[in-house]
Amino acid sequence: MFRVESCPVCAGKSLRVLKTHAFSFPGDKVQEHLLDYRYFALWTLFERVLQDRSDAVFDLTLCEDCGFIYSNPRFTDEDMATKYTTFNELGTPELGAKHHPPFNLEGRAKRGYDLVNKYYPFKGEGRPKVLDFGGGAGYNLAPFTRDWECGLVDYGRWDFPEGVTKLGNDHRDLSPDQAFQVILLLHTLEHVPEPVALLKTLADHLEDDGAMYIEVPLGAFGEWKFMNEPLMHLNFFSEESVCTAAREAGLHPAHVETRYQWVTHAKLWCINLVAYKNPDVGPALGRRPLTTREQMGKLHYYLPYAANPRVVKKVLRKVTGC
Ligand SMILES: [Zn+2]
Q: What local confidence, expressed as pLDDT, does residue 318 receive?
């Protein structure tokens, strides 16, 4: 791990620590907690990534320039590879999928497919290529398999839908000349230590008239206040900061929206962003992205959660400490 002294998105220096979280080694019984993501994430952090059982402290920092909220210190690429290889060794992705299978996958996949087709109605010859980067078991590609050539990059070991080909574990497995008309980056950007660097790398793999569809949780609203562990989500975006990240990577946002929408096991507030590599391909953004401050203050974002007893209990536990 390493500390950063400037914003990982815009390199700004006007930084403010919003909160500090301390985490402790959870114990040696990881084999008994393979379905408890907080336990096995903390075990992996201390035992494999840090190789040190001393408490670890993370600052949650706001960049006043672009509104990006991020944890600090940051993980290296090697730390991330250690995380995923440890999860594979423990078998936690497969166990989680078996005991808590995601559902309503078709609805989620169709949402992405419809949005891509709205902003990228492919009219060229042959089958266009789509890459789902960090695409897990590949279910978001299912609607694309009929007309698109579908590739996927992910550390996971899954039985992919027919027509989906795994191209590697991470971006280093793509050959420099591999290019796609569309790249999907769904609930992945919040996990990566250097979001702009990843977006730049993926933009290099877009055709000149290509488009990227990015989906992230609205982490800037409140998620950063309630971190259970620091290994999974490192970035807490707003419309403002995710659009800035895309622009810093040379992409041109065409559509941004914040919606309470289905992910894998539940609905949550998410930001959907479509961006082009070339601004002449389609429309420019129709409105100003909401700032982090604006999205932090939108109390109606609490409403759907207020109806969920599990969330209410969790918040009360955090507030009261018992
Ligand atoms: Zn910034």
A: 61
- Find the 210 Cα to ligand 1 centroid distance in Å: 26
Question: What's the CA-to-centroid distance between 95 and ligand 1, angstroms?
Answer: 37
Give the residue ranges of DSSP H helices in the chain.
37-43, 77-90, 92-99, 105-119, 195-204, 239-248, 292-296, 303-306, 309-320
Q: How many whole angstroms separate alpha carbon 133 and alpha carbon 182?
A: 11
Cα 240 to ligand 1 centroid, rounded to whole Å = 10
Is the pLDDT assigned to residue 317 strictly greater than 80?
no
Q: Are strands 164-168 and 149-153 parallel, antiparallel or unpaired?
A: parallel
What does pTM read for this prediction?
0.91
pLDDT at 301 over 60: yes
Which residue is listed with tokens 């609607």? Answer: 143
Distance in Å, CA 70 to ligand 1 centroid? 10
Tens-place pLDDT, residues 69-123: 999 999 999 999 999 999 999 988 788 878 887 778 888 899 999 999 999 988 8
Ligand 1 centroid to residue 162 C-alpha, Å: 41
Q: Can you give the pLDDT at residue 316? A: 65
- Give residue 249's identity as a one-letter amino acid code: A
- Span from the CA of 185 to the centroid of ligand 1 (angstroms): 21
One-letter identity of residue 119: Y
Q: What is the mean pLDDT of residues 10-38?
A: 95
The pLDDT value recorded for residue 321 is 61
How many Cβ atoms are within 10 Å of 68's Cβ, its own excluded? 28
Distance 106 CA to ligand 1 centre (A): 36
Domains of the chain: 15-98 (no CATH), 102-320 (3.40.50.150)
Instruction: Give residue 237 CA to ligand 1 midpoint distance, Å.
Output: 11
Radius of gyration of the chain (CA): 19
